[in-house]
Queue: 2 jobs
Job 1
Amino acid sequence: FADGPLRGLHAVLTAGPTREPIDPVRYISNRSSGKMGYALAASLQALGARVTLISGPTNLPTPAGVARVDVETAADLLEHSLQLAADAQIFIGAAAVADYRVDAPADEKIKKNDAAMSLALSRNPDVIAAVRERYPDLFVVGFAAETEKLAEHARGKLERKKLDMIAANWVGRGRAFDRDDNALSVFWAGGERELPQASKAAIARDLGALIAERYGARA
Ligand code: C5P
């Protein structure tokens, strides 16, 4: 492990999209590339943490020195997160978890016909909220991707999910998703910090340092 302020700590991150099957060949997913979560995993590793990355499907290489567990659905992500968070001190939810899954995925490929078709969907579990619930002493950091009222929505999630910190970014109109740069507004109970537009690697270094700082200052 690298030397640094997070030495001796285990950080677990979720990253990337989830995929919710419709049938054996189709799924529902989203535009998350996983880049922000992967960059943050590398940054926490460089700050001395042992890092486990629980990743939905991405095209990214595993950062050096980071352990990676691949998952597909939100249900998989939940199971591995609850398991791996058991011996962690820091948990970061950077995954873009699908909010809904298909009620009854078909066993065989669905055949088309001329009629319209609809899919019945159910709500997925909230992974980060479940992890917080199970492990009250964990330092939990969430992300929020918003198209409007960034601070208000991010602070709402910070409180509702009982997070220690939330990193919020504007999305839509070509911002953040599947790009190499990003800007973040970070909120916690007693304060906030702006991390202005920069490469995701640079933003991840600043966010990693801020996480180390706030972890050190936790009650
Ligand atoms: O509510 P919203 O999806 O905007 O919250 C975003 C945060 O919650 C992110 O940290 C994301 O990883 C996490 N999340 C989760 N499980 C869900 C939905 C979101 O862990 N089902």
Note: The helical segments are 35-46, 74-84, 127-134, 150-160, 200-217.
Job 2
Amino acid sequence: MSIELQPLPPKGGDYNLENYEETAKHFDWSEVEKAFTFHKTGKVNLAYEAIDRFAEDENKKDQIALYYSDASRDESYTFAEMKKMSDKSANVLKEAGIEKGDRVFIFMPRSPELYFAALGAIKIGAIIGPLFEAFMEGAVKDRLENSEAKAIVTTPALLERVPVSDLPALEKVFIQGDDVKEDGVYLDFQSRLEQASETHDITWVDREDGLILHYTSGSTGMPKGVLHVHGAMLQHYQTGKWALDLKEGDVYWCTADPGWVTGTSYGIFAPWLNGVTNVVRGGRFSPEDWYATLEKYKVSVWYSAPTAFRMLASAGDEVVKNYDLSNLRHILSVGEPLNPEVVRWGEQVYGLRIHDSWWMTETGAIMITNFPTMTVKPGSMGKPFPGITAAILDDQGNELPPNRMGNLALREGWPSMMRSIWNNEEKYKGYFEFPGWYVSGDSAYKDEDGYYWFQGRVDDVIMTSGERVGPFEVESKLVEHPAVGEAGVIGKPDPVRGEIIKAFVSLREGYEVSDELKEDIRVFVKNGLAAHAAPREIDFRDKLPKTRSGKIMRRVLKAWELDLPTGDLSTMDDD
Ligand code: ATP
Ligand code: MG
């Protein structure tokens, strides 16, 4: 079963990756290393390759590295200034006794200081642990405790959610704010930053040394602490070049918060390793602010998420007409399945195609994507990145032929692969039950042209009357209906059919809940997809439960439906 849509041929243009098929045939990760200084010097530090090497380059040092804005700040920093501020930040951390390998958490809203703190910690060889600002005390405690964090950089407002006295390993709490009283544990990050020396001797590390510890989104359960190493930069760089198509002169905006892996791999590492100007916007989503940001900075490459595109679409097509988005040339999406309807909508309102990309916290960087020079099949995630081998395996680990739904797996050993799940060897081993393969936990199929089609989380695949139905296809059909803004689909146990399909739906602006509408939506899916795929039950909700990274939490829908405990909700967006 698949939604029939016309493939969209490449639009043509001057792209970094010209011929996907040829390149994929001959690609070798060890060649990528030649782009970096450490290839010659043997001295590795991601922060050096991302910032310092451009700050030392006469032609690049005065280029804007970071544009930052929110409701009260509007600033920009060149590569030279980013080097200065991250050197100062490295000195602040080092003088307080933070050393290589220590875990330094960063728990603050987006601000330039967040980026200085992160880069400074990387410069001294510490492992950074980003935390989303909305985390409450329990979530902060779990993560700091699990990783035995030695330091945290936070703000006065967030400090009350850091249970310092319950965390014996936590020695230093840096506070970014005014009038901070110091006492040996609590330290004034802002004034220390101002006073710190501008010269810093970077700590050279091994490419296998820890860089970042990311806790997953918590869509399926308790978040896991995923460790990535400096060597991951090879893939951050190369996917930035070929998938994001970053080049000299680009202004790039990744809308993800650095609390999630997209906000670091593609909000910090990939753009700066490629030497492009990076836009960061603080504050929450609003269609007007987002379009204003694209216009103001003349953004050329934009990386966002399906939920954001769906919300922009729900806001209507008129609002976009008030903004000049003529500098945009490439748009990408990640985090959830990208509904074909959203791709179609993007073509219509932006005149550009939204390119899907698939990867996970654990994979560290993009693994499957639609390259700009490729024919896009809307609804498909695209093809594996050169150097990546993907496959669909059955439950015994055998490769399945095309068009059969199974476990999406990846051949072990890409540069940005996680190196461990912190303090949980068992969990880590669980990903590698079939020798040589990393099993993602996602269900997908591959078509005869080698395109991958996401079906759902393995646990979310629905068995109804003997048919396997991926929730994504039903959801995608649902959002094609003019009244439907967002949809989440689950299997509900049923004595006769095994499971029935149940949909939770939020409506677009201007639509009212009614029985007629419910039936109309049901019939729409039945006629557009298949009778057995039409939801037998539809519940309307004002909004669907989502993670703060914007993913619909089907396990919460299921728990609501079946009256089960909802499990860890620390990552749920409850605004
Ligand atoms: P947890 O592992 O804690 O349950 P999570 O899996 O949502 O949470 P992330 O690592 O942030 O945590 O998300 C990775 C998952 O997001 C993938 O396994 C996949 O299910 C989904 N995903 C990411 N990109 C895409 C995409 N382009 N299409 C479909 N699904 C995607
Ligand atoms: Mg996951």
Note: DSSP finds 18 helices and 26 strands in the chain.
